[in-house]
Amino acid sequence: MKIKRYFTFVFTSIFLSVNAQKSNSVKIDSLFVEFKKSSFYGNIYPAKKELENYQKAIIPELILLLKDTAFSKLTGTTDLIYPGTTKFYGHGQYLPYNIDWIAIRSGWLLENLTFQDFGYKNLDVTDEKLMKLSKENYNNYIKNGNYELDWKNKTIEERTAQYRKNLSLNVKKWWKENGKKWNRISAIKEALESNNENRVSDVFQYLRYGESKCDNLTVEIYKNEIKPIILALKTANKLPEIQEQIELILVESVNSKILDLSKVQ
Q1: How many domains does the chain have?
Q2: Contact at 8 Å (CB) between 154 and 162?
Q3: pLDDT score recorded for residue 176
Q4: Using N-to-C axis directions, what is the helix angle for 127-136 and 156-178, rounded to 10°?
Q5: C-alpha to C-alpha distance for 229 and 222, rounded to whole angstroms
Q6: How far apart are the first and last CA of the chain?
Q7: Residue 157 in contact with residue 101, Cβ under 8 Å?
Q8: Across the 265 residues of the chain, what is the mean pLDDT of every consecutive 10-residue run?
């Protein structure tokens, strides 16, 4: 009788787990549909906030979207300021990503989620950037037989497309090397120790104002594992902007919205 009950319990647990996974998959798919629409405050931003809560589960799909060449001009932006803005009201939220392009929109969410600096912020294609990325992918170009150096003969559109393609290759390589072990707590620590101003600033913005959760993050983990890195950064990094962020986070502590409440006893 006990054995029968045990197998019933195991079967029920597996059934519920599979159903939960299917439910999450359907929900994620529907959120990506919203994320690719045009209305910033009506569809894109709400979907972005929800998608970010799924953390690691959405990264493969975001990487696929980095190759998307679709253009979806934002609507419903009110006073949002971004590289595709056509009207300026003298004030507003600033977003340094040209998210009219689906690929860059995906890069925006990916960088916010992972605290990496893949190059999608302030996307400004120059010969120097193109050559740098081309050299980084030299072996791939040689292997595929389509390595190009003649950037000056390309149109701006061709340069931009090639630049985004190279960025996506770098992200794909990063995920192949880090995907199995990636988690958001480790991503926070790595970014704080990176000496990259964009990454460090993104972490402080998240710790202070973030609205998406970080699995397994508790006040204790913040105090014991993250705060010591911030204190070390206070001595090592002398940039005024970073110093200001450090002072504020040390006074305010971590935003409760990003904590994993399932770990709170």
Answers
A1: 2
A2: yes
A3: 98
A4: 40
A5: 10
A6: 35
A7: no
A8: 59 54 85 98 97 98 96 90 75 86 97 97 59 60 48 65 90 98 98 96 97 96 98 93 95 95 75
The answer, as to whether pTM is greater than 0.90, is no
Residue 116: its pLDDT value, please?
98
What's the alpha-carbon Rg for the chain, to the nearest Å? Answer: 21
Burial class (CB in 10 A: 0-12, 13-18, 19+), 140: middle
My answer on whether 56 and 174 are in the same domain is yes
Which residue has tokens 């009788």?
1
Domain boundary among 178, 199, 232: 178
Calculate the alpha carbon distances from 222 to 148, 237, 260 in Å: 47, 20, 11
Q: Which pair of tokens denotes residue 155?
A: 């149109």
Domain assignment of residue 15, given as a range: 2-178
Kindly write down the DSSP assignment for every residue of 191-229, as one continuous string. Answer: HHTS--HHHHHHHHHHHHH--S--TT--HHHIIIIIHHH
Give the pLDDT confidence score for residue 13 in this predicted structure: 52
pLDDT at 251: 94
